[in-house]
Amino acid sequence: MIHSAVTISLVPEARGGPFVFWDDLATGCARAAAHGFDAVEIFPRTTEDLNARQLKQLLKQHKLKLAAMGTGAGWVVHKLRLTDPDAQIRGQARNFIASVIDFAGGFGAPAIVGSMQGRSEGTIVREQAFNWLREALEQLGPRAHAHGVPLLFEPLNRYETNLVKSVADGLELLKPLRTKNVKLLVDLFHANIEETNIADSLRLAGCDLGHVHFADSNRQAVGLGHTDYSPIADALREIGFSGYASAEILPLPDSETAAQQTMESFRMHFRPD
Ligand code: LER
Ligand code: MN
Q1: Neighbours of 174 (CB within 10 A)
Q2: From the CA of 117, how far away is ligand 2's center (Å)?
Q3: Annotation says 248 is catalytic
Q4: Left, alpha or beta for 243 (phi > 0: left; psi -120 to 50: alpha)?
Q5: What's phi and psi for 183, nearest 5 deg?
Q6: Alpha-carbon distance 218 to 226, whole Å?
């Protein structure tokens, strides 16, 4: 069975980004529960800024799970990328992700590597960048495994990276890895830009699919854009996906409407009875 989640950003520098609830963890959790979500996906600035006891208490109080935790602030705030030409920065990037893996892992949730993949530019060719990504994943995949969770790797789109932009790119990256603990996160907004057929790409991901960012073509709540969701829901059922469909979307026209519209669409596609 697929579960529902909604995003909360705690990163002021990411303002304007695709997150439903902002700034205040307590309010975000309360609103997520009020709308009937199973879980929250949190986008922290650093793990040091997070209070594990407070989060534990909020999740318990609102009967929510932690679906996943993003590492995008590693790039947006701290300018760390796993494919930076500077070895020291690559090391700091791995450490940043490791801290999110450990924090989220304590809640039984995976960390997401998306924007921190960086891009191939200047003298850094694609093959070199892929090797650095694989080195990092060989280290971080087993670290997530120690918490009993996967590590999620997210293909983006051409405007955000020239490395992993599709399920096919993602599978190419993961295939030679010794660790089998890295799963793909398909963000349906990115997929709408890059995939020939989104449902086919989900079937291609199959058991390597670990998480879904549930967004419409315009990065608004599902139902507010023009993506045809029936074949996507069918494909997710067909591959037996049992992870989260998490609303990483713009808070448009406002957070409350975006959350409510997401829940309506989630129920329509995944809880039709
Ligand atoms: C960025 O566009 C995105 O989709 C995030 O989930 C990546 O960290
Ligand atoms: Mn995403």
Answers
A1: 20
A2: 13
A3: yes
A4: beta
A5: -115, 160
A6: 8
Environment of ion ligand 2 (residues, CB < 5 A): 187, 213, 248
Specify the CATH number for the domain of residue 219: 3.20.20.150
Tokens for 19, please give them.
């997150």
pTM over 0.70: yes
Which ligand 1 atom lies nearest to the CA of residue 187? 4
Distance CA 97, CA 115 (A): 11
Question: Could you tell me which of 24, 70, 19, 18 has the C-alpha nearest to residue 47?
Answer: 70
The answer, yes or no, to whether residue 144 has pLDDT greater than 90, is yes
pLDDT tens for each residue of 170-212: 999 999 999 999 999 999 999 999 999 999 999 999 999 999 9
Burial 43-52 (b: 16+ CB within 10 A, else e): bbbbbeebee
Nearest to 173 by CA among 144, 131, 212: 131
- Token pair recorded at residue 49: 């800024």
Q: Give me the number of domains the chain comprises.
A: 1
Residue 172 is among the residues annotated as catalytic for this protein: no
- Report which DSSP code applies to 38: S
Q: Taking Cα atoms as reference points, which of 251, 253, 188 lies closest to residue 217?
A: 188
**DSSP label of 19:** -
Determine the structural domain holding residue 226 and report its residue range: 3-270
Q: Which residue in the block uniquely carries the two structure tokens 């599978």?
A: 171
5 is written with which tokens? 């989640």
CA neighbor of 190 nearest in space, from 164, 165, 171, 173: 165
CA atoms within 13 A on the CB side of 170: 29
